[in-house]
Design a protein that fits this description.
Keywords: Membrane, Transmembrane, Transmembrane helix. It holds the Pfam family Piezo_cap. This is Piezo non-specific cation channel R-Ras-binding domain-containing protein. It comes from Lotharella globosa. By secondary structure, this protein is α+β, with helices and mostly antiparallel strands. The protein folds into 3 domains: 32 residues; 229 residues, no CATH class; 214 residues, no CATH class. The chain contains 13 helices and 13 strands. The strands form 5 sheets. The protein has a 4-stranded antiparallel beta sheet with strand order 2-1-5-6, with no helix packed on it. A 3-stranded antiparallel beta sheet has the order 7-10-11. A two-stranded antiparallel ribbon has the order 3-4. Strand 5 and strand 6 form a beta hairpin. Helix 2 runs antiparallel to helix 4, helix 4 runs antiparallel to helix 5 and helix 8 packs across helix 9. The termini are far apart.
């Protein structure tokens, strides 16, 4: 009997011990989200994912917007937008940062400390190499000499610290966690709404979570469930927001400012901001003045084309004076929103830079064609003008041309000029060059007014070297200065800006 009683007590004690163990494990699982258990030596882990994700997200934004400052370059994102090309190194760094964010999410979903440790060391090694070695070497500026790089380094140090704390404490115990829905509140709700506003961020998270978790739901059901959770969390945050005031109480001033006035001003900025950025009213607009100009002409006939002269150099190039610009405004050569600093006056050299070199058979054919006005009734002279500007990078050099039909007298005069040992060595060309031209940022050169420059071209011969070359004497109207015009370029410090104002140049 005594042995039976002892066996019963032993069985009851075993059941109580198992029951206590079961209750303890249940409490441990329930407390796994919040940190340490009170039982000594048990560390179910802490959740630092949200903090680490936020720091990595800010790092990604800094890389895209301020990469040129990090590497010590003057090129900004505005220049990248204007040239339709981003830096390849910036894209690579952004991709690596995004890859670390994705891998960190995978490690969090699987609660894999091994993968987390590997990601931590890889991230620390990569970014320390970029910040301390690669970027200072490219820019010739040390870390202590580059303030944006130092701030980015502090940001990454914060990310490394959060990652190290996650490795130290381990991941929390339990199943899938919706880390963005744990702590409802006013500011948490605002941050979550901002996170959902990031294009494709919430969708990518849902896809990755569905791919890494064991679930019987298909991907669309998982999307629906995540959206329900997000909506309920936002509603919960809104309820907490409304608890701060009594029924019938007027809304406080700070809520009207942050929920009404500031969003209204933001919408106004969204509507009118692009209009100012893409107009001449943009205060950040800079001039895009011409730095090089050239002229050339050729004769077009039924038997071919013949180059006459080319002048790729200029005699002078300057901005117009106030008096000249006022005269241009009076004559409606420029528009009211144009800037004087963008107006130029250019004079090309009066002589060609190349020699007039043509074979005797070709010269004889050209002279015969010019004289035979009945057999070859149509011959033209074509003037080409080219201008080079600092930008845009896709169209630094812009070209234009003007084609005029040669009159019978002009053809005979030109044939006489080309005939060896003739007494006539000049020919008068009316309206050969346009006086006022606008150079657009894109597209073709446009003539601003109908005024043109008449030109007298001469074929000169150097008797010492026995070579011939052309000279040009332009005769613009004495009342209006001979000017050409070129569109300005936007300031590259402002992303995505453009301009409609013009600059002017002269060539006579």
């Amino acid at each position: 009997g005594t042995q039976g009683e002892e066996a019963g007590l032993s069985e009851r004690g075993m059941r109580k011990a198992l029951k206590r163990l079961e209750l303890w494990m249940m409490r441990l699982a329930d407390r796994g989200w919040g940190g340490y258990s009170k039982r000594k030596g048990i560390a179910p882990g802490k959740d630092y994912y949200r903090m680490g994700f936020f720091l990595d997200l800010v790092s990604s934004v800094v890389i895209v917007i301020g990469y040129s400052s990090l590497v010590g370059q003057r090129k900004t994102i505005g220049q990248s937008l204007n040239s339709n090309r981003f830096s390849g190194d910036m894209v690579n760094c952004f991709f690596v940062q995004l890859l670390f964010i994705i891998l960190d999410r995978i490690a969090y979903l699987f609660h894999s400390l091994v993968l987390k440790v590997a990601i931590h060391y890889a991230s620390v090694g990569y970014w320390l190499a970029q910040i301390l070695v690669v970027w200072p070497k490219e820019s010739s500026f040390l870390l202590q000499q580059n303030t944006p790089l130092r701030l980015f380094f502090l940001l990454k140090l914060g990310s490394f610290l959060v990652s190290a704390m996650q490795v130290h404490y381990g991941y929390p115990m339990g199943g899938r966690v919706r880390q963005f829905h744990q702590t409802p509140g006013v500011y948490h709700g605002m941050l979550f709404k901002a996170y959902r506003a990031i294009p494709f961020a919430f969708e990518m998270q849902s896809l990755l979570d569905w791919a890494c978790n064991t679930t019987s739901l298909d991907v669309w059901e998982s999307f629906t469930l995540d959206d329900i959770y997000a909506t309920m969390y936002i509603v919960q945050c809104d309820i907490i927001y409304r608890k701060g005031r009594r029924r019938g109480e007027p809304q406080p001033l700070y809520r009207k400012l942050f929920s009404g006035s500031f969003p209204f001003l933001g919408l106004i900025a969204v509507l009118f901001g692009p209009l100012y950025l893409f107009s001449s009213a943009n205060p950040a607009q800079i001039s895009n003045n011409v730095v090089q100009a050239s002229l050339s002409t050729k004769i077009n006939g039924p038997l071919g084309s013949y180059n006459l002269f080319s002048i790729p150099s200029v005699a002078s190039m300057r901005e117009v004076t106030e008096e000249e610009y006022a005269a241009m405004l009076t004559a409606e050569i420029v528009q009211s929103d144009d800037k004087q600093s963008s107006a130029q006056r250019i004079e090309v050299n009066p002589f060609s830079d190349d020699l007039f070199d043509i074979s005797p058979p070709a010269l004889y054919q050209l002279i015969t064609t010019l004289n035979d006005t009945e057999r070859y009734p149509l011959m033209t002279v074509e003037a080409f003008y080219s201008f080079t500007r600092p930008g845009p990078s896709t169209l630094k050099t812009i070209q234009g041309s003007r084609k005029l039909k040669l009159t019978r007298q002009q053809r005979l005069d030109l044939a006489e000029v080309l005939t060896p040992d003739s007494g006539t060595k000049q020919v008068y060309m009316k309206d050969l060059f346009p006086m006022f031209i606008r150079l657009p940022a894109t597209g073709e050169i446009g003539v601003m007014t109908g005024a043109s420059t008449d030109a007298t071209i001469r074929l000169l011969e150097d008797r010492k070297s026995h070579v011939s070359f052309w000279s040009v004497c332009a005769r613009p109207s004495p009342n209006i200065p001979g000017l050409l015009a070129a569109d300005s370029t936007p300031n590259d410090d402002v992303p995505g800006t453009s301009s409609s104002s013009s600059s002017s140049s002269s060539c006579h």
